[in-house]
């Protein structure tokens, strides 16, 4: 059908019609809210590069979690900033580590909120890499046991789900094996399956004090130029036992989200990362675009690409917009 028989504008004429033909829905159910835990009491320290995001001590993190839950957000993902770092990242799997404490308090006070933990070593190692460094090289196999121990300690503290973000080969299987062995066979793994070596993590690394002290992450995170490799990475994680597959970042990788969603029958998550958030915030602050509209458009486009859920620093703000209707 061609013009004038077909007129696309007919179904765009009113808000009612637009609502009826809308193909993609964004609801608070789709949102996962990232939180950064630090030690201390009554701390809510703003993070410069992530306006509106804070370093919270556990007490304030519980408050923020409650607010998220009350706003209809089903889940948070907890990151920890430890007081001390060492070569083996021992605070990542310490029984009384910052994430372990935060998780157990949140589960105590907001039991129905799904608490996910980021499983990685980079915030905890003094060299800032996501695995163990041996002779200047990030060693895959000796990192696996530490990552699995980290995941187990999170689950023992009460985490509902663990999310390995390190990009070591074989870590999903290692984590699944240890969790099963310890009786946690019902605990799901959300794997950062296709995680790219991206400059869009810049603000996060400031927030998490996790920039690598030497080199970069190109030997383990993926080359932004590749998409077939993403399918391979995702397939491996599915075979190793992942329950939810993540693509990260989101906006510069919508094609990857789309292809993964078409090929994989597991739930798909996408991480709307720190740089994607801060870009919109900065432009809005300059008056160069409408921050709220840009936020909703960006989140909707990630859903349209095929993501079932979105990890985003916009979670609370988006929930506010959505709850207003
Ligand atoms: C830890 C981790 C990172 C992010 C999530 N988990 C940083 C990195 O890989 O350097 C980035 C999140 C963001 O930028 O919002 N490995």
UniProtKB/TrEMBL annotation:
GO molecular function, one term: zinc ion binding
CDD domains: ALAD_PBGS (cd00384)
List of residues binding 5-aminolevulinate 1: 205, 217
InterPro entries for the chain: ALAD, ALAD_AS, Aldolase_TIM
Residues annotated to bind Zn(2+): 120, 122, 130
Gene Ontology biological-process annotations: protoporphyrinogen IX biosynthetic process
Residues that hold Mg(2+) according to the record: 233
Catalytic activity: 2 5-aminolevulinate = porphobilinogen + 2 H2O + H(+)
SUPFAM superfamilies: Aldolase
Pfam families per the UniProt record, alphabetical: ALAD
Pathway annotation from the record: Porphyrin-containing compound metabolism; protoporphyrin-IX biosynthesis; coproporphyrinogen-III from 5-aminolevulinate: step 1/4
EC number assigned by the record: 4.2.1.24
Keyword annotations from UniProtKB, A to Z: Heme biosynthesis, Lyase, Magnesium, Metal-binding, Porphyrin biosynthesis, Zinc
PROSITE patterns per UniProt: D_ALA_DEHYDRATASE (PS00169)
GO CC annotation terms, alphabetical: cytosol
SMART domains reported for this sequence: ALAD
Catalytic site: 195 (schiff-base intermediate with substrate), 248 (schiff-base intermediate with substrate)
The keyword Ubl conjugation belongs to this UniProt entry's keyword annotation: no
UniProt entry tagged with the keyword Protein transport: no
Quaternary structure annotation from Swiss-Prot or TrEMBL: Homooctamer.
The family this protein is said to belong to: Belongs to the ALAD family.
The protein's name: Delta-aminolevulinic acid dehydratase
Source organism of this protein record: Desulfatibacillum aliphaticivorans
């Amino acid at each position: 059908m061609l013009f004038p028989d077909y007129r696309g504008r007919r179904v765009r004429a009113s808000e009612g019609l637009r609502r009826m033909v809308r193909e993609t829905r964004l609801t608070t159910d789709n949102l996962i809210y990232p939180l950064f835990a630090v030690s201390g009491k009554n701390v809510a320290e703003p993070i410069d590069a992530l306006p509106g995001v804070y370093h919270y001590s556990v007490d304030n993190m519980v408050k923020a979690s409650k607010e998220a839950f009350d706003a209809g957000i089903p889940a948070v993902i907890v990151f920890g900033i430890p007081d001390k770092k060492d070569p083996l990242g021992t605070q990542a799997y310490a029984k009384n580590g910052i994430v372990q404490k935060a998780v157990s308090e949140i589960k105590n006070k907001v039991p129905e909120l799904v608490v996910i933990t980021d499983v990685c070593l980079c915030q905890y190692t003094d060299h800032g890499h996501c695995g163990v460094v041996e002779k200047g090289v990030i060693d895959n196999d000796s990192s696996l046991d530490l990552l699995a121990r980290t995941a187990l300690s999170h689950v023992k503290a009460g985490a509902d789900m663990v999310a390995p973000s390190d990009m070591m080969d074989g870590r999903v299987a290692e984590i699944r094996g240890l969790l099963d062995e310890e009786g946690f066979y019902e605990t799901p793994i959300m794997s950062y399956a296709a995680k790219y070596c991206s400059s869009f993590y810049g603000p996060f690394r400031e927030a998490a004090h996790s920039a690598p002290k030497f080199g970069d992450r190109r030997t383990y995170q993926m080359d932004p130029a590749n998409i077939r490799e993403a399918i391979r990475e995702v397939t491996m994680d599915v075979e190793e036992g992942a329950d939810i597959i993540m693509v990260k970042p989101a906006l510069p990788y919508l094609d990857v989200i789309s292809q993964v969603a078409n090929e994989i029958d597991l739930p798909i998550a996408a991480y709307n990362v720190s740089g994607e958030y801060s870009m919109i915030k900065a432009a809005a602050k300059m008056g160069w675009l409408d921050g709220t509209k840009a936020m909703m458009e960006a989140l909707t486009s990630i859903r349209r690409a095929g993501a079932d859920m979105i990890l985003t620093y916009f979670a609370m703000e988006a929930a506010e917009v959505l709850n207003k209707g």
